[in-house]
């Protein structure tokens, strides 16, 4: 391999495939390699059904019901309808390879009960999530928030962008339960740190949630037919269209700096690149473990109770409700999304590990799903790079966190993109057209 590539990308996870597509489209010469025989790496969808049992180290049953009807996400997440990943899909026209369905409902747990988060004014007035007077205070908060513009002080109503979020809640008189679901189920914060941080970040997060609901009406979330593994493959196609080269089943033996360039050795051959991008598994000496996530993949023969028999939904259990430091996420899809056999549901419960008994930490989410026909659990280490790549020219992505949406993943993608190119990704070029449903 004598060619010099602008970029060699290691791993075909969602982060790496999106960067491959963006960089190829911008004119860079890209070589993309993966030790696996399939696209998606950790963000793949497993099919047929025996592959799911194999992945989790369990023997497959002697007979499987329609095994090829199953496409089970290893790391399940939803897309915000007006979020960064959808905008990237639109910008790159990868939407032509995918079909989406709107997730039917977004829920939050309060005092052990599941409540639908109001998606319009009618639901806000009828919900039992809040009392009558609290609904009025919540409505006033949403009206103020919907008009808030950081650049226009007239919209601030005596709340500058650097005001702590806790002071904003006090101004509107919102109670603890409302603060919980606003902060964790709408703004999608994972811990309580947002309470003392400047309010602008939380305001923008809630505005994103509201704008995403306006797209399709039921919830702010979308999910692709046939599972999330379709998304990395879509960006791989995009990269190929713009000249990117893909090599699967290529074990990586060494990544090293050679005379100001990066050498990547696979099966005794070394290819040279100006920079290398990859997931943490390819750079064991350049990453640090920062936490762990536990995920349980559950097969159900019924919809989740108290969700109006929804074929898909998300439930967030705020950490305050269960005496934890991190939220618990429950996401559910079904045969309506071509990810499991007819009349089955796939539910996934995930959270950041806090104790030496991770499975027990999932119990508040698992009890919402019972009876569970089959459950698979896995604890994953979460890594992040120890340097930003500016000197080493090795740009390493972060592991996928416990959240059930892609916003944090997209933040990492856009951050790596800026470090590589020296400029922000220009979202102003994204056309306003909807993903097909």
UniProtKB/TrEMBL annotation:
Keywords: Cytoplasm, GTPase activation
GO biological process: protein transport; small GTPase-mediated signal transduction; vesicle-mediated transport
Keyword Cytoplasm: yes
Entry function: Regulates the GDP/GTP exchange reaction of most RAB proteins by inhibiting the dissociation of GDP from them, and the subsequent binding of GTP.
Protein name in UniProt: Rab GDP dissociation inhibitor
Pfam families assigned to the protein according to its UniProt record, in alphabetical order: GDI
TM annotation in the entry: none
Protein family: Belongs to the Rab GDI family.
Stored InterPro entries: FAD/NAD-bd_sf, GDP_dissociation_inhibitor, RabGDI
GO MF term list: GTPase activator activity; Rab GDP-dissociation inhibitor activity
PANTHER family for this protein: RAB GDP DISSOCIATION INHIBITOR, RAB GDP-DISSOCIATION INHIBITOR
Cellular compartment(s): Cytoplasm; Golgi apparatus, trans-Golgi network
GO CC annotations on file: cytosol; Golgi apparatus
Organism: Ciona intestinalis (Transparent sea squirt)
